[in-house]
Amino acid sequence: MNVKKIEKAWKGILAEIGENPEREGLLETPKRIAKMYKEIFRGYDLEQAPNITTFENGHDGIIYDNMIIDTGDFYSMCEHHCAPFFGQYYFGYIPDKKIVGLSKIARLIDYYGARMQVQERLGKNVVDYLQNILHPKGMILILKAKHTCKSMRGVKKDGIMTTAIVTGIFQNDLNARQEFLQLIK
Ligand SMILES: [Zn+2]
Q: Is 78 a catalytic residue?
């Protein structure tokens, strides 16, 4: 990421929207934005990709064959408007031979969220990655987010969007799905 080029581009944008990029309050803004982009768009830097280790199911003396659930916050950037969307994720899986530390789910969502995204692809990035390393019996990932591009502009609706990605057991087993929804309530 070329910080100088981003600074220059942002100076141009500020001038075009009717601002004076040279006034006191804005003087450092392009530099601050460029610095922020290094963090919030780190998802393009493969070297910063999280290193997710898995464990044999049973390595700690317990075989996990029930649902394991993790929920938390996430942030990303809408690729249509370069405006943030953010909210909660609800992840559940039923392991087979491998398990993963739950803190890793948040790290994956953070990493793939640090790109220009649409909510559906963000979910798919995470689920595809986990599918490859875990081959679980089933996964479900619900993302519920407020899209500021919807709440700030146009019809100014509240902009809440919910997407779900469902694999394996969760696709056919209504009870498993019900149980998950009950547990995240
Ligand atoms: Zn948008």
A: yes
